[in-house]
Amino acid sequence: MLPRERFIHALERRPPIPGQRVPHFELVFFLTMEAFGRVHPSHRYYAQWDQMEEKERELHRRDMADIFIMTAERYEHDAIFIHPNPGGVEETIRLVDLIREKTGDRYFIMRHGDATFSIPDGEHMAAFSYRLVDEPEKVKAEAQQMVDEALARAERYRKHADQRGLGLDGFALCADYCLNTGPFLSPRRFAEFITPYLAKLIQGYRDLGFYVIKHTDGNIMPILDQLVQANPHALHSLDPQAGVDIAEIKRRYGDRICLIGNVNCGKLDTGTDDEVVESARYALSSGMPGGGYIFSTSNCIYTGMRLARYELMLDVWRREGVYGT
Length: 325
Prior knowledge:
Elements: H1 3-11, H2 32-36, H3 54-75, E1 79-81, H4 88-103, E2 108-112, H5 125-134, H6 136-164, E3 170-173, E4 178-179, E5 182-183, H7 187-193, H8 195-207, E6 211-215, H9 224-229, E7 234-237, H10 246-253, E8 258-261, H11 265-270, H12 273-287, E9 293-294, H13 307-320
Parallel strand pairs: 1-2, 2-3, 3-6, 6-7, 7-8, 8-9
Antiparallel strand pairs: 4-5
């Protein structure tokens, strides 16, 4: 199987094939400077984008595409999560086309596509909380508008992909809902202000033929039922630092949804080598049975993490992440 086929096989929870390796990807791999001597695309200073002439922009796009491909090739990622330049749909399409020109249908390509309310930053947290009580209908109208606009963009991606034969494969919905102690909103409020719009967004993407991965860090257990009912293809990142146990989620929902993640980022960052190995093994042994699992960390490979720790995690995956062995 090509990496893209392997990734889709898992998203669709098809039975595992003996000898097939568990798919792997990272939502973000920020250590491109250490790995390749190249600045990660999302770390670049985009304020000068409007001042660039088109020749410079094209060179920039091609360099970005090369970095995403180099990362996927070296670390055996089955999927590429892109970070487009400013410019909306058109810039995303140009970047996807460049990656497809260089790699064909080898990789599953996705981008951020959430359009639901996430945890507000500290400056706006209190004001947002008051609005839920003081003007709930206005908040709901804004939530619906965000979904409508996201689906309108998705229709443009679908039309382009149909014209080209292959384009964007799906979306990772990256609105974070939870802290380590639990959701920012109570389950009741979540059911009122988030879940209906998340479900509409996911169904709209599915109707257009896209795959959907719902990402949120933190303790998702109080709203887990609602996340599953919203019907994404997969849940990421199953955060063990917030007490999320992949074995428990697999037991409860492994027949309904693909699971992605659960290798403890905290252990990769500050734990011992033995703790990294133990966490990787637990994620594999808990997620693999029956298929429907994609190996990854519980967040991403972020700036400041030691590259050697990520490579240690991958060593476990290469040895123990093959079905039927």
